[in-house]
Automatic annotation (TrEMBL):
One Pfam family from the record: DUF1684
InterPro entries: DUF1684 (IPR012467)
Name by which UniProt lists this protein: DUF1684 domain-containing protein
PANTHER family: DUF1684 DOMAIN-CONTAINING PROTEIN (PTHR41913)
The organism's place on the tree of life at top rank: Bacteria
């Protein structure tokens, strides 16, 4: 394959990936559809955007519905005797369940040790007005080879969050070492969602200028020998780049890179408009 053909294929593969990622982001009940962020307490409280009154105690969430109100889970109607509570939990950290009320999906989740409720509605203004996310043109120079070096023992790593008052604790199995712009660099990696994958949160010298200031994320999959491809063209924004109703983690301090990575997603149009 000629160099020109290889670059054309690289560009086409990136465009296909980016289109699919944008389609996923604009799902009718994705994070752009979140209308409210509620933190649950022990006192039964009505929540805007969700039916019933909600409370949590001893890792159990209780919801009391009024007559005519409805909640479904996995397509099944949830029923309780008059005045009795529906109960959910315990939910593991960073886990969650989806409940449905009419056209609204109600996310019940646990973040930073606290329970949250986030209603998601397809008519949310942020979703309806979404203009897409700009990105740098794909550049093969930012697809670099690295090596995953496991720690002797996985390290619990505490990081801040996009909202004040909570922290996230992730297990870091190791770091990825690589070279970019003539510098030897390393990134602490967390376990990813998919088996065998790693998630890297980072900032760089474009952060707050052309890319979102707080963080970007890159998912990688090391080979058996530890070799890994870091394709920064596929660095993406987390939900906090779009909405203040997100609890996204911030990168660990060592993942603040001293180089400018002019690849991947840029500041969303919505945030640009707010400047």
């Amino acid at each position: 394959m000629s160099t020109e053909t290889a670059l054309e294929t690289f560009d086409a593969d990136w465009q296909e990936w980016h289109t699919a990622h944008e389609r996923h982001r604009a799902h009718p009940h994705g994070f752009l559809a979140v209308t409210h962020l509620h933190w649950l307490g022990s006192e039964a409280t009505p929540l805007e955007g969700a039916p019933g009154t909600w409370s949590v105690e001893a890792d159990v969430v209780r919801v009391v519905l009024e007559p005519g109100e409805s909640l479904q889970q996995d397509g099944k109607e949830l029923n309780a005797d008059a005045g009795a509570a529906l109960e959910f939990g315990p939910i593991e950290e960073r886990g969650g369940i989806n409940l449905v009320s009419g056209d609204t999906v109600i996310e019940l989740a646990k973040r930073g040790g606290e329970y949250i409720v986030r209603p998601r509605h397809p008519d949310n203004e942020l979703l309806r007005g979404y203009q897409g996310t700009p990105a740098y043109s794909p550049d093969a120079a930012y697809a670099v080879r690295g090596t995953f070096v496991p720690f002797e023992v996985p390290r619990p790593t505490t990081v801040g969050a996009a909202v004040e008052g909570i922290q996230h604790v992730y297990e870091a199995p190791g770091e990825i070492r690589f070279k970019l712009a003539g510098q030897e660099l390393a990134l602490t990696a967390f376990n990813g969602h998919a088996p065998g994958s790693l998630s890297v949160l980072f900032t760089d010298q474009t952060s707050g200028k052309t890319t979102y200031a707080a963080n970007r994320s890159l998912t990688v999959a090391p080979a058996v020998d530890g070799s890994v491809l870091l394709d920064f063209n596929r660095a993406v924004n987390l939900p906090c780049a779009y909405t203040d109703l997100a609890t996204c983690p911030l990168p660990p301090a060592e993942n603040r890179l001293p180089v400018a990575i002019e690849a991947g997603e840029k500041i969303p149009y919505e945030r640009q408009d707010q400047k």
